[in-house]
Structures are given as structure tokens and as C-alpha cells.
């Protein structure tokens, strides 16, 4: 077995993938395996009794949103009675930021990797404040979610139907030249996204007032594009999964309790260990005491070579997550040590347009003792509160070691 | 006379100015001194016989646009008969990119410096390709100009009327954190501009098709925001003009033949000398042989501390104007040598959020032998062609020396 060739094959598939945002549709119409009582969630598999506060909050919110229960107590009762099934987004070609909870009637972005033909999905971004993905589930959270899924979603669906789709790889490439890193900082990407959608929306909007509200929501939310970018990264990573002999990471995801990875040449097995606490900057009134454990599928961005891996493109992010601009450059430089190549489409101006580090090799991670860097939002540890900050976190080294042992057992 | 206090006063006025885009209106309704047969142009005063090719082309185009003549020959005849009056935009509280030709019926942005109460104007940006500002005047150029002034302009006017105005200083500050320098690279700023306008336009657009076309035009043009940014810089610079004893530059402008500056403490006198040829990258099929002389009022951006002065914020610009990212950093560092301070609102992430160099001191320029750096578009030297590239240029040292002599005569 030539592992170098296997890894180059996996890397080439990941970087050659061209993800196009094609549609917005209800999850139950397009997400494989979706069921009425199924809730997809971020990270590796987990059951209710081990779920973190924010994950539980999002689960309760989704149960209420779907009308499966009428209040929090009834929702918890339903869950504890085993009437709700949980399944990782990743098991359904999907990804979701933070709690990532996505249910039957929610709208999802559909991204197609037109190079290899696979598709991936992600829910719609809710914006700031009290939102489901951070574990909030008050009535105004669900009301906003309903507006997003019943007003914004269908308008996006109709707008995209009038286009050839949006090239998310090209969008990310441009955004990296505009100070984004594609994970925690998606300001430029969200503006490009809004600018591409606005002329399409103008043609299909039912009335000026609703249109104005939707354009304001998309344009004012610097994370509007995060979810389609995540789906795009998922489509790129999935294209690289399943290459016999490849030690390249194709999934990194957290459910608030465990951090899990999967490896291209090791099938669908998760390697998991307890999550760390993120280190970062907190919103006024909050401290690290309030922080929940690392959570979300958004680490699919780092898996695909952006996010913390492209920090050198995004010096201004330090105002949001801490550190100084040199730290941002150093972060990217360090990630070259544990990756298989440089992304041909994602270049970093201040590194003389060098491609971003892409394709985490579990062998290099273990050998050098350097785990991937991850940028992240920070959720309050309790259900129902929401975001309290943003920062940096590292996955546990144990999961890379465990994966390498499995790799050795499988191939050596 | 304490020149340091005078300069600090001028600098403080320039940086405290807060320019708000308030309205879009026909030039004849708001621009002071506008007349039916008056054409405003970029740079210091100039008459027809000394005008460069692109300036002549834009003059012919504007004469045709206003219906003062029915073809090129008649337009030239009219001009040569002395029936058309020329006047610098700067004499009318206005600025215009490249040829800067602005006439009676064209729409202009109105920017108010709400700190000091002065206003400034700029025409609407025409986008790419064959455009009046680069000296093109074919029928399709005038047709597009008509659409811009008769469809885009009124829609922008109505949209802005439904708002409290757009804070252009805040917009520029944000764009500098997104890889813009505010002169040649206005990608992020134009996206922010489009994103702010879109919800306002949605409320007033007459129909979806027209709205869609306008939003596409604004969003696809990475220079959409250049003209309001220039008007904002003009409003900032004007606020600093006329401070007794100040050696700070408050105007830098080129008409394609001469480069002119004005100094805060030296009244309305222009100091001029022949322009240099820009040095840069050319579009396919063109070389430096095709380049016209340095032209445009857009150097008002460098005058106000952005543009080439903020190059370190915009490493990706080197793909457009030449050089490498380190050159971009060096450009900004050099400009600190000849400026009076650092802009409190315009910070540069990669320089640890240091404020951009602002307030050119003619004393420092002459003493150090360092003239300001300027980013610029490059027009074809002949009338009617258009843009052929983009690059860097320096004003002639002679005008700073001449200004310093005048300063000494006046104050010493």
C-alpha cells in the first residue's frame, strides 16, 4: 500500500471538488433518511443523557418547533420516553453549526460538488442573539426560526431556481482575499452571498416590504454564508472520503460533549474523546465560567483547509477571538506542518498568495504532536441562553492517536 | 505662528469629519455654480488646447450627453468656439474619478460632513468597460450613462430618502479590515454599499426587473462606492482647508496634463506641474505605450489617508496594480514619514491596527524627498478608448517645493 499516493488521491479529490449551491428545500424532501421524529445534530453520535446544555436546549427547541410537544416539560418527557431519534448530521450528508439541530420541516441548502457528483446539506443561518443553534428555545427563538424557514427559505429557493447556482468555492476564494477565514469570520463572504442573491431575489419577491426584510436579514448577518460554506466543505470532504490507504481526516465535528474525527481510509468509524473548553473573548457579562464545551460541525471548514487554517488571511478576526495579527499568521504557518498540501483555489495574500494548508494527516499530527487549530463560537453551558463569546480550541490529541492505531491495525 | 498647532488643528478637523451620504440629486440642483454650458473636470484648471486625450474624450461625451451638439465634430466646434466653460470639480465642492467630467443633468452623490456642516459631491460610477470617465464617448457609452443617471440615480435618490443616510467613514473603516484600500480596491466597500442600499431599494423599486438590474449593477461593480468615498474624502479634506499656518495638503488632483495640490494654509492657490505616467499592470493587448498621463480627482483618497496610504490593508491589490504584499506594507510605512498623524477611524489590521497615515505635510515631503504614493487607474492616451490598466504613480516633487516656497513667503 502506497500511503503517499492514497493521500494525494484523497487530497486531489478534496481540492478538485467544486461545490455549487443549487437549491434550498425542506429537509424531509432531500436529506437522506430524514424522518418526522428524527433530529439531526452536530458532531459524533450521542444520546440525550450525555448531551450538553446547549445541545439539549436545541433539541427541546426543535421538538417544540416541529409540534411534537407543546412545552419544555413535554418535550423532555417525549425525549426521555425514547420517542425522538438522534442522528449526526454527518450521517445524512449534512452539517450544522453549533448544536446543528435540523428537523423534518426545516429548510436546507443543497450544495452539489459538480466535479464528483455528491451533494451535501446545511440548515439556514439564524443570525445573532438568542438562536436555536446556541441552545436557546424561547418562543421568540422559534418564531424567528419559523420566519427563516417559511419566509426567507422559500424566497431563497425561488431565487436560486432562477440561477445556475452559486459557486461557493469561488466565493470563499474571493472572501479569503477580503479578510475572511471562512469559519468565524464570514463578513466578506456573506456580503458576496447577499450581493449575488439580491438581484435574484428582486425578481421573485412577493412584495417590497418582505423583500427588504429578507435582504436586510441576509446582509446584516455576517454569518449568512456560513451554512452554505459548511455544506460546500462537507461536499469537498465527502469527495475525499473512502480512499483506501489514506490517513487524511475527512470529518472533524463536536457535539458539545465529544470531539469526533473520521479518516478517509478508515470508513465510517468515529474516533472520539471529550471536548475541550474554547479559549477566547467573551461578550460583556460573561466569562469562561459560562462556557459550554466545544460544539458544532463547523470544523468541517478547517477539515477543508479554511477557518483557523486560513487565519493568516483574516488578521481582523483577532478583535473577535483574541490574539494579535501575528498569531493569525503563525496559526496558518503551523497548520502547514500537519497537512498534505496547499489548496489550489484558496490563497492567502499576505503569505504571497500561498495556498491554504489543507488535508490533515493523522500521521503528521501524532508525529509532530500538533493538533489542528479550530476557530469557534462559544455557547453558554446551560440550555436556553445562547452565544457568550468566540475563540480558539484544539481537538484532543487522543483521537488522532486512536485513529493512528486503527490505521496501523488496518493497513500495517 | 505655531505651525505645529496649526497642523494639528487641520489634522484634527480632517479626521474628526464624519461624512454621511445623504442624497442623490441632479448636479444643477445642488452643485454650487453649475451652469448648462459648464463642464466640471478633474484636477487643477485647464483649457481645451492643453487637455489630454481622455479628458477631451470625456468633454466631447458630456457635450453630446447634454445635447449641446449632435456629433463629435459639432462638439469640438462648440468647444473651440468658446461656448463651453471648463471648471475644476474642486472649485464646486465636487470630485470625479479619472476625467471627472460632470455636467448639468448628471446625478451626483451629496455627502455631508455632519461634524462641521460642509458638503461635497461626486458623480455616479459608471462601472467597467467603455466609460466616459476614461474618455470614451461612443453611443453605447452615453446610453449607459443615461441609464445610470435616469434609472439608477433616481432609485438611489429615493432609497436614500428613506434612510438616515449612510456613514461613509464607518463603511471605509470596515472595508479597510476587508482588504480594501479605498481607492483602487473598493470591492468590500462596494459590497457593503450594495448591502446597505438593497433593503432600501427594495422598498422603492418600481418593478422587480429594474430593481434586479440596478442591484446587479451596483453589486457587480467593485467601484460602486468609489464616488461616494471620494465625496466623503473631499468633505473631510475641505473641513481641514483654510487653517492659517497649516502646511497640510488638502487637495491632490490631476487633469491628465497637470498634477495640482492645494495647501490648507495657502488658500485656493494651485501648485501644478506636468503629470507623470503611471507604472502598473496593463490589460491584455495594452502596454505603457498606450497609457495616458495621470488623471483624476481620486487622489482625494490619499489626501484623506486611504488609497495608497492604506495599501498595507489591501495585500490582494497587488494582483491588480503589480508588486507583492510586502510592497503594500512598505508603501504604508513610507507614508507615515510624510504625514502628520494616524487616522483614528481608519486602522490597518496587519500593522496591529495602527491608524492609517494621514495629513501630508509639504515640509516633510520636501525635507525627506519623499512624495506621496498614489494608486490609480490608467486611461488610454487617446480619446474614446477607455481604461488600459491600473498602477502606481507619484506626483512631481516640484509642486511640493513650489508650495513650500509659497508657504515660506507667506509665513516666514
Mean pLDDT of chain A: 96
Oligomerization category of the chains in this entry: homodimer
Low-confidence stretches of chain A: none
CATH class of the largest domain in chain A: Alpha Beta
Largest sheet of chain A: 5 strands, mixed
Strand neighbour order, sheet with most strands of chain A: 4-6-5-1-7
Describe the overall structure.
The structure is a homodimer of 412-residue chains. Chain A has helices spanning 3-16, 27-30, 53-65, 72-80, 139-161, 168-176, 187-204, 208-220, 226-239, 300-303, 318-321, 325-336, 362-368, 397-411; strands at 19-26, 38-41, 85-88, 94-95, 107-113, 119-123, 166-167, 249-255, 258-263, 271-274, 279-282, 295-296, 339-348, 354-360, 374-379, 387-393. By secondary structure, the first copy, chain A, is an alpha+beta fold. Chain A folds into two domains: 19-230, Enterococcus faecalis V583 fold (Alpha-Beta Complex); 241-411, v583 fold. Chain A has a five-stranded mixed sheet. A four-stranded antiparallel sheet of chain A has the order 10-9-8-12, with helices on both faces. In chain A, strand 8 and strand 9 (258-263) form a beta hairpin. The longest helix of chain A is centred in the middle third of the chain and has 23 residues, at 139-161. The first copy, chain A, is globular and about 55 Å long. The N and C termini of chain A lie close together (9 Å). Chain A binds chain B through residues 177-180, 187-188, 191-192, 194-196, 198-200, 202-205, 208-209, 211-213, 215-216, 219-220, 315-316, 318-319, 324-325, 349-350, 352-353, and chain B through 177-180, 187-188, 191-192, 194-196, 198-200, 202-205, 208-209, 211-213, 215-216, 219-220, 315-316, 318-319, 324-325, 349-350, 352-353.
